Amino acid sequence: MSIERDMPYAAPNAGSPAYSGVLSRRVLAFLVDYLIIAILWVPAAVVLFFVGIATLGLAFLLYPALYFIVAVCYFGMTMGGPAQASPGMRTMGLKVVRTDGLRMDFLTAAVHLALFWLFNSVLTPLVLLVGIFTDRKRLLHDFLIGAVVVREETI
């Protein structure tokens, strides 16, 4: 693999216009993404129904976790993919950039999502307060995986 593919660009410095309006755009991107995940959950439930019949009911045990499985696959493949953003983030003109300059991969995107769910379940709605007081509008789960969310048109 070439260096250009592995290291697309470094995160912009604090105070850059790349962070202007990021928090409000992230909230809107969240709503768009979870609407898409809810739509994707329906065909996944139908497929799981038929797989459950074929496995004599064994696959039915996955139903309680199906929404989370769909969400992890969705974010892992989109944020960890070439665009480095979910469709909701792309709609809002956002992109995820790792602070070490490497590309976001499937596992890192899945961990980012899991940490988001964890902190959101404990700190809702206070989870967004961290972004108000940080220079690059980073949230707690962004700090832990070493990522920033930036406006795509500014990079």
What secondary-structure arrangement, pairings included, does this model have?
Blueprint: H1 3-6, H2 22-54, H3 66-79, H4 87-91, E1 94-98, H5 106-123, H6 129-133, H7 140-145, E2 147-151
Antiparallel strand pairs: 1-2
Helix pairs in contact: 2-3, 3-5
Transmembrane segments: 34-59, 65-85, 106-133
Domain RDD: 23-145
Organism: Martelella mangrovi
Q: Write the element-wise H/E pattern from the N-terminal end onward.
A: HHHHEHHHE
Q: Report the helical percentage.
A: 40-55%
Distance between the termini: 23 Å
Question: What does the oligomeric state look like here?
Answer: single chain
Give me the side-by-side strand order of the main sheet: 1-2
Supply the number of helical segments. 7
Q: Which outline best applies?
A: elongated
Structural class: mainly alpha
Account of the protein in words:
- It is found in: Cell membrane.
- This is RDD family membrane protein YckC.
- The chain is mainly α.
- It has one domain (18-154).
- Helix content is 55%, strand content 6%.
- It contains seven helices and two strands.
- It has helices at 3-6, 22-54, 66-79, 87-91, 106-123, 129-133, 140-145; strands at residues 94-98, 147-151.
- It has a two-stranded antiparallel sheet with strand order 1-2.
- Helix 2 (22-54) crosses helix 3 (66-79) and helix 3 packs across helix 5.
- The longest helix has 33 residues, at 22-54.
- The protein is elongated.
- The two termini are 23 Å apart.
